[in-house]
Amino acid sequence: xxxxxxxxxxxxxxxxxxxxxxxxxxxxxxxxxxxxxxxxxxxxxxxxxxxxxxxxxxxxxxxxxxxxxxxxxxxxxxxxxxxxxxxxxxxxxxxxxxxxxxxxxxxxxxxxxxxxxxxxxxxxxxxxxxxxxxxxxxxxxxxxxxxxxxxxxxxxxxxxxxxxxxxxxxxxxxxxxxxxxxxxxxxxxxxxxxxxxxxxxxxxxxxxxxxxxxxxxxxxxxxxxxxxxxxxxxxxxxxxxxxxxxxxxxxxxxxxxxxxxxxxxxxxxxxxxxxxxxxxxxxxxxxxxxxxxxxxxxxxxxxxxxxxxxxxxxxxxxxxxxxxxxxxxxxxxxxxxxxxxxxxxxxxxxxxxxxxxxxxxxxxxxxxxxxxxxxxxxxxxxxxxxxxxxxxxxxxxxxxxxxxxxxxxxxxxxxxxxxxxxxxxxxxxxxxxxxxxxxxxxxxxxxxxxxxxxxxxx
Length: 458
Fold this sequence. Notes:
Among the domains are: 137-191 and 230-352, Beta Barrel (Maltoporin, Chain A), CATH 2.40.170; 192-226, no CATH class. The longest helix is centred in the first third of the chain and has 10 residues, at 6-15. Helix content is 3%, strand content 54%. The strands form three sheets. It has an 18-stranded antiparallel β-barrel. Strands 9-8-10 form a three-stranded antiparallel beta sheet, with no helix packed on it. The protein has a two-stranded antiparallel ribbon with strand order 18-19. It is mainly beta. The protein is globular, with a radius of gyration of 25 Å. It comes from Enterovibrio coralii. One of its GO terms (molecular function) is porin activity. This is Maltoporin. It is found in: Cell outer membrane.
């Protein structure tokens, strides 16, 4: 028998289904169901300090505090999904995630002057297509391509995403009978994306880094200067063991146009992996996630946290541990917790022997169906080798305490009940004024923040 070339064999397998029809006369390409879903998120934080708005998260992204510290005055997301099912069981999804205001602390009025600010405007964060149940692929498999946040996970109280692959790419995923799923994906991102190196003014002059009156074009990096980072992701989730389930992630990373000569040069490669354990709240009613991750080079930022920020140096190497969850305690109390430790095994973000950690708790008491009281306490720690990032003396080691009390008006007093409006008072105390400056406190060693936070997800 004459053998077909591989490409021809694949083409034959694909085209062999084109004439499919059921006994009822439904054709393979007939649309059986077609519809739209809309989901979203909103976070609106009103904070005044000394009579003004301010651009400070008081160290929360660096695991120093855990209160309601997000600096975004109005962060809004909409996720639109178009789902279609066809006659032969094939499904398609088109997902678009739009976002506005992430990281922008200004309070805007109806004048629309936010258009003059080139950060945190309306952006498309995700746009990808998923095709599922294609007849020539394994059962319960799907392929996807586009711009995506793949396999995200964030700390329960810090809110920091420690796992994700964010960028442009494609992948394959399949499910198994026992609830497990595995996949492979490649995701790429340009660290230079969104940067403007030079401005070309209306009069033809160029000024580096500073805008002029009328800008007619910008001059981004040339193609040959791009340092695109790419990650090959392998993952296998849902392995049942030890009273819960395990998720395994492995990522190998590469950065274009890099040739490190010494340890302090930008890294060309990286490798990272993580193991995540999912179960109830450590034997009690609730849920928890516990993860350990290792990263080297480009992957030193928590091992499996890939995106345009994956631009670390050759000597960077880290170990990351986190555990967080929510416990249900009787009919009135719920308790959220997080303990996270992040340290350099050599350097991390260029800092030798950098160590960071946080322990945080958030008890929540249901007064009635529409009102709860929320209390947050945290302790954050950071240190490194004398001279890291130019820090000496008292600035080498940072201790930060954060306590917060909030009254939560909500449609559902559950811990995750939303929408809600939450007036809060958050107090931060550091061990000295040098530490206070590291979390954005300018005068003294403590700060009190008053605010009202509104939040919704749907």
